[in-house]
Design brief:
235 residues, alpha/beta, Nucleotidyltransferase, domain 5, 5-stranded mixed beta sheet, 9 helices, 15% strand, disordered C terminus
Length: 235
């Protein structure tokens, strides 16, 4: 006697809007540093009436899975890493947002920490290395922060380390979206809030073109017909 195996339950089951609209709203919020009300207005212009609280719920639920899918599809990082950190003020306390990008401007990882010492630098390097499946870079470029040399010697002993502020413009320029997001959110509420915001937005922030989120949807959702609200025209 054969037992029927239940089909995988769609994460979009029970939602009134089709997956394409949900994916588009989430992409708009994270890609262009918009507020939830901004996304609400953009959708309303196309005849899609949805509240900003619903968009907030969509971003919280689907943002991590979209970001994970984009990371899996990301090309392999270059052999030159740029590391830098920028100060964030969260509830009156200074935190540091560590960022790693390659020579092409692709964001490798981001980590919010309270300290900027050697331990924090090693923790960030290990996180980036783990995300790249242990593939060490040929060169690491940093500013003249004293925490970097011992941390790089410990974590990346075979990597060349170059310390020069002007050589690190690639990483410093990538901090600009951080300030934009901080202004839109009227400052981050906690370190976890800042980390989650960038974990979800970083993968789409490195491209200037529309992310095809339909490829991240389950196959059953892409093949099934869905209702098209008035005024909605997929790109």
């Amino acid at each position: 006697m054969s037992v029927a195996v239940p089909a995988e339950r769609s994460p979009y089951r029970g939602y009134r809007f089709p997956p394409e609209i949900i994916a588009h709203a989430v992409w708009l919020y994270f890609r262009f540093h918009l507020s939830f009300r901004d996304v609400q207005d953009l959708l309303a212009e196309r005849g899609i009436i949805v509240s900003h609280e619903t968009i907030r719920a969509w971003c919280s639920k689907f943002g991590p899975s979209y970001a994970a899918g984009l990371r899996r599809r990301r090309a392999r990082a270059g052999d030159k890493w740029h590391l830098d950190e920028v100060a964030l003020k969260i509830r009156g306390k200074r935190h540091w947002l560590w960022r790693a990008v390659d020579q092409h401007g692709v964001i490798l990882d981001i980590l919010v920490q309270e300290r900027r010492d050697q331990t924090a630098a090693e923790r960030f390097l290990l996180r980036v290395l783990q995300g790249e499946l242990g593939a060490e870079p040929r060169v690491v470029i940093t500013d003249k922060l004293a925490s970097y040399p011992p941390a790089i010697r410990q974590v990346l002993p075979n990597t060349e380390h170059r310390r020069h502020k002007r050589l690190n413009n690639r990483a410093e320029n990538s901090h600009l979206p951080t300030r934009k997001r901080e202004r839109v959110l009227q400052r981050f509420k906690s370190a976890e809030h800042a980390q989650c915001s960038w974990d979800r937005s970083a993968p789409s922030a490195t491209t200037s073109v529309r992310v095809d989120t339909s490829s991240l949807l389950p196959a059953i959702e892409r093949s099934a017909p869905s209702a098209t609200p008035c005024g909605w025209t997929p790109h």
